[in-house]
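Provenance and format

Records in this collection were gathered into a single text stream. Each protein contributes a sequence line and a token line. The two records reproduced below are adjacent in the stream.
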Amino acid sequence: MARTLGPVCKRCRREGVKLFLKGARCESDKCPFARAGESRRDGRSAVLPPGMHGAKRGKMTEYGEQLREKQKVKTFYGVLEAQFRKYYQMAERSKGNTGQVLMSLLERRLDNVVYRLGFGVSRAQARQLISHGHICVNGRRLDVASYLVRPGDVVSVKVYKREGGKAKKPGSLAIVNEAIAGMNGRAVPDFLVRNDGDVPSGAVLRNPVYDDVSLPVNPQLIVELCSK
């Protein structure tokens, strides 16, 4: 599976918004945005775009604003350009506002749902849990992070069975419980419900809408860019 490697915090600084890419670090004082109120010796804000000339960039063009919105969404959900184009084409063929349908499709990704349920501290960890086969959808193990959930789907942690019929809880269950305990006030969105128990699970109540998106984004700018 292709991945975008490199410094993670630099990507948040480039978009000018916290994208919660590193889990617990994003909630700590080590995050550059946690020190946004502090000043450097030259009096500038602590959060600057990456690069030695980050503070000297001029006014952004209309195309630049559209591109940055698209890149911000791609980085936030962890999708590459080809994947993003497929989602846009699906949204374009659907009824309703194209931008809002696009955001709904991205919210329906299994890795995003696992993260929003609190099973992972970041979407990257959620993708790892899925790709390693530790997540089930409707009782069946699923290792496709891009799977689009539907209303009524039940997402749970995989529990293996021994020959004697006794459940064997994998190490991922401890990771999920630790992630849930460290949510730091991060709420489960309204289109999901989580059931805490010996084996945490969650259900999809409805398709997500634009108001369920936790990222401040203007999808209309993305539509203007992709429709050119």
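Adjacent record:
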Amino acid sequence: MKILIIRFSSIGDIVLTTPVVRCIKKQIPNAEIHFLTKTNFVSLVENNPYVSKIYSIKDKVAEVAEALKKENYDVVIDLHKNVRSAQAKRATSSKAFSFNKLNIEKWLLVNLKINKLPNIHIVDRYFETLKTLGVVNDNLGLDYFIPEKDVIDINASFNLPANNYHALVVGGSYYTKQIPLNKLQEICALSDKPIVVLGGKEDAATGLQLEKEFPKKVFSACGKFNINQSASIVKQADKVITSDTGLMHIASAFKKDIISVWGNTVPEFGMYPYLAGKNSKILEVKNLSCRPCSKLGYSKCPKGHFKCMQDINVTEIF
């Protein structure tokens, strides 16, 4: 059976599809799995041994439409469910099953603070899309495969022993999901172990500032490593302190103990750490009337106070 799985973005969402990929491959005899994503995220999929072929787009499905049509897929599993994925399904003319994004329920929670969302993780909701295929969750968690060339020698890079430092994720797709600088400073001051700070090039100034404030204790990796290399740093950490980010889900794949710090988004959306380390913990300000203010995030707090992050007691981390 030849199967196409569609998930265009982003880092965390793609990592959350890995149990689906694994279970299809292991439970359907001779299954051949193809994956359609955006070009920026191919590195998240290309090392997955359960995926036989990857198609990617930069902007438009038209870039691969003809090639998809020629594949003659038996089934298409749409785990993104947007305009582009609909175009991809039409291009294949194959039998398709689509993930229910529960957008109405999310709107109700964000705008009216009425929670009609099921108490089910998004991974388990992904599997509801596969019911017709008879594929079930093996409950082995997420996968993340790091190529040998991207494995980081922690001692050589930071003069630190593996498994004896905290990874602190300072990046994020939206400001209102990121841990603010003053809270990061508190975390660094309280930590009883060295900290490696992770983020993108856009977080380099934050990483450098923390490194200067806490010399020989904090080491910035912001913007210095690709996503697989950052995953390697996460894999070798003792604990991972992070907001609601892609690296949080990558840490879950390695069964790390995760301290997840939540701002404008909420775990009720179903994207909290999945089958992570047994000592993982969620930190959030509950019963805040304006939270969640978005299912994604904003470039600044709409209310101006950013209480969802500023009222977090980071001493609970330690």
